[in-house]
Amino acid sequence: MIQFRKACRRYCILLIFCIQVAFSVNAQTEIDGIMMAKNNLCIGPMYGYSSWKNYWEGTLKRENLNLGTVSTQMISVMGNYGITNKLNILFGAPYITTKASAGTLHSQKGIQDGSLWLKWMPVERKLGNGDLSLYGIAGVSAPLSKYVADYLPLSIGLRSKTFSLRAMGDYQLGNFFVTASATYVFRDNIRIDRDAYYTTQMHYTNEVSMPNVFTYNIRAGYRSLNFIAEAFLDNMITQGGFDITRNNMPFPSNTMNAMRLGAWLKYELNKPKGLSFIATGNYVVSGRNVGQATTIGGGIFQIIDFNKKKPASSSLKK
Amino acid sequence: MKKLLYIIIPAFVIAAGAIPFACSKKTGGRTDDLPALQPGKTDIDAGSWKPILLTSANEFAVSAPVATNTPEYIAQMNEIKSWQASLTEDEKNMVKYWSAGAILRWNEILRELVAKYNLAPYQNDDGTYPGPNANNPLAYPQFPFANPPYAARAYAYVSAAQYDALVAAHYYKKLYNRPAPYKVNATIKTLIPQSDLPSYPSEDAAVIGAAVEMMKLLFPGDQDFIQQKAEEHKRARIIAGANVRSDLEAGEALGKAVAQKFVTRARGDRAGSAAGTQADWTKLENDCIARGEIPWSSLEIPKRPPMLSAFGKVKTFLFDSLTAVSLRPGPPPLTASAKMKDETEEVYKIIQDDSRDHYRIVHFWADGIGTSTPPGHWDAIAAEDFIKKNYSEVRWARNMALLNMALMDAAIVCWDAKMFYFNPRPSQLNPKIKTLTGVPNFPSYISGHATFSSSAAAILSHIVPERAIAYNEMAREAALSRLYAGIHFRADCEVGLETGKKVGNYAIQRAQNDGAGN
User: Fold this and answer.
1) Which UniProt keywords apply (chain A) (predicted)?
2) CA dihedral of B52, B116, A54, A110, whole degrees rounded to 10
3) B302 touches chain A (CB under 8 A)
């Protein structure tokens, strides 16, 4: 079984994906229990489309006839490189466009936040009939362009520099697995173009304190050499912030919470070697100060082996 | 690649330790840590300055204070001492906060309330819109909807009432000449700078009395909040050793009495009926059609009636109603004209350039829902300059009153033009025009931002002449921000700037003749 897991290492799963929760919370996450093998780079483009008509104004679910349906498109380049078999580095940089189907508000577009993750697998051992692996993951993100944050719900992002810490465990029994992770995201203050703003009180400054975010994610499904299918539940809970007041506009430091259900599929071809396709979708089942978004996405990834001399499959023979 | 690892891993370790602490959650306001106000001059003779509504500075009587050698006064001195004997951090912070200036702090509180209440009501199920009710302020939609005209009027009334209250207070200060407690007894500690200004009746309390009374009328749903601020402010004065209780009581009573004149005026200034009725809105539309023009139509879904359609009829402060009508600008380009077609095309071209710099300008000046509105923004601009001038409270009040009366009258003249011409917004004439901020729900001509801003720039340039160029540049940028946003035609902005300046000139005339000098 460990052999199987090692085999998995060269496969490109790359669950780094911009999840358009709503109001431009593009949480880039890296939450799968699979590592790239040493000196292998998995890289490729991803496309995502997300839209919502209803949103939660605080806890009140409503529509907004002056926005209609708010949609977001994302094109991203993402990569995962195996520094060692137990240490991977991942990166992503999305280009995002947003628009509202009704009303007069101008659409937005631009390169959003770049993110960089370091994924470490300190523990990998048999447990019962299956295999347990544990991971520690750290990531940073920062805006790559001067996009506008204070133009929600059409802003392409929130501009906050973030630092994330994630603990994750993966257990695989035969072809079935379960992965659970918890993430804490520290978010830095942002600056907006106004010189004062009201939250639950007046702030005579252009600096906005951003609440941190806690997220947990549980995923389970089927995993083989060529095919992965999984379902997931993801819950984002903002640690603080405030609710949108009645008929007000959203604000970057709102309490944005979202519980999502989704699925993820990946198929890897035998020929050409190292080429894989992924498809994913998710839906916000409950939330607070976020849109009830439906998101779909897909990507094509290629593994490039930088190992000299030895063939790409060498890691399999160990 | 190994080399990369040597860099990346330590970088992450450092980041893991440092970033959670570096991620600052503190956001201090620009006026949080101001030093205590230390006026350059006391303006002891301000009792002779020309009041706004008072017939004379002594229209309301203030009884003579008790002598400083009486047991009653000594008991009041002891109240200061007992507070000062054990001061908590909160109390020290309270003193620090209020010592920056009474007019400044109450203006900030007013801006906060405007921002809190500046929210358009959500529609009813049948597509109509509910209106706020002053007699039931806490029911949805809360009273008031503190939109720009409402806010302009609120700032003007509060500022003007505070100014008259301080003129009256100064009259009695000079008349009775009772010194501050620290001048009577040197053992009284002072937590703020000392002043030669007689302390009875208290200027801070006169400001409080006027503010509380006016704000009860203007923001009836937040009386607890207002009252709590008033109590804190009074306590801060006692703790600071700046006033004895009788200074405060006399000042507050005077401030309230003066404010009553303003409350009476406000109840009769026609703002109560400014929302208009369906019949009014239909008439505005039909009159426009009768002139052969395309009338303004709400771009909101469902269509919302124009904001405060009768605000142009509200009673002005700086000139009479005939003058107000005479300030109405000439008509905008005809909606069918080549000129209007060109201007619409210009707006369409401009919104293609949604550069970062345009967003910065548009959003800095947008002052839309949930903000203190353009008049509040100009109050903030003025306040930050006034802070540097070390004005006495009465001069602060006078300058704020001049500014805010100009802004209110600018709102009236602007709204008169908007409703009279009932001119469409660019996005109505060309739906392809997408805007960089929300489209305000009232006719286009003339721009409120332009009118507000140039009236403010005019009076502020008189008050702080060395900043005249900056004020005029700001006014111009504020006006153009509406063109960049795609919500105004160029003519709206240019004629708005001209009209606002004319309104501002009336404030300058008043300033030149109110006896305050500069």
Assistant:
1) Signal
2) 90
3) yes
